[in-house]
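Below is how a single chain appears once it has passed through the pipeline. First comes the sequence as given, then the structure the pipeline wrote out for it. We keep one example in the README because the format questions we get most often are answered faster by looking than by reading.
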Amino acid sequence: MITIKRIPSETLQLFLIILLGVAIRLWAIPTFQGEPYGPVDVYYVDGWAANSLLNLHDPYMQNYIVSGESGVFVYLPFVPIYYAPFYLLGDIRYGNIFADVLVMISLYYITRRLVRRSAVYAPLLYAVLPPSIWLSSVSSTNMMIGTAMIAGSLAFVVNQKFLYGSVFLGIAIATNQFVLLVIPPVVYYFWKKKKTLHLSAAVAVAGVIILPFFAASPSNFSYDVLSFQFVRPLQVNGSFSLYSVLYSLTSFRLMTPVRVGIIVVLIFLAMIWLSRNTFRFIPVCALILLLGAFILPVNGFWNYYLLCLALSCSLFPILLSRKNLTMGRQNAI
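Resulting structure:
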């Protein structure tokens, strides 16, 4: 007699949530076409960079013309690597949606470690999160790729899969500059669990992805992915930053060393808070990403906050229950 194994209810719920998130994002692509909607300049630059890579050209050596102006490729190497197969499929926004699926799965496993019974609420919240839907399917930035990689890394780490977590961390470092900000709490967590040696995988993976592009043109690469963000001119739509707020109110330009100093001090304080209970690991990572997005850039684009928003979705189920929150404070992950 053939027996059919019953699918666990939470697994089925997660599958349906993913279907919902994918359906909404696929619906949004044709629905929001043309002015005043449609993809922003990042969408076209990402596509051209992926095409350059497919043609065995260095994306950091190309000249990108958007709206009549010349620009540089300011993103880390895994972005065009990731987008390459989706470019061949005809639209890199399919890659954004796939990254969102990875985020939803990761949020579920992060939250299940923190609070078992209501873990599905985290991916559900992300599935219907308007900023995520808009960034993936309409404006089409690439922030969800780095978000997927760091969320995947943290999901493995909190579930004690340190080697896999380290590999995903390496990919995340090679995807989004903001990921560098969460290295202190991640290193501390590995050290606390006596798994520091596993971090060598992150260094190796990040090095394999980044070094070929860096070696091809160290000056171009360094300027495009690091220096440019600190020296680029202030834009009208870049108002979500400390630099922009101060300049608009007082005409005062907050210099880069000062902004770096502020974030270093705040990360240090966050690490002190984390050291008292490792249950705060995910909240600290989310907080640091929030502060980094606001303090470091000259232009504070709202899509920079997606990493923080995604990780914050994993905290929402905890806040639904005072009992669960109390248990979490007593039991470090």
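Strands lie at 64-66, 69-71.

See the next section for the split statistics.
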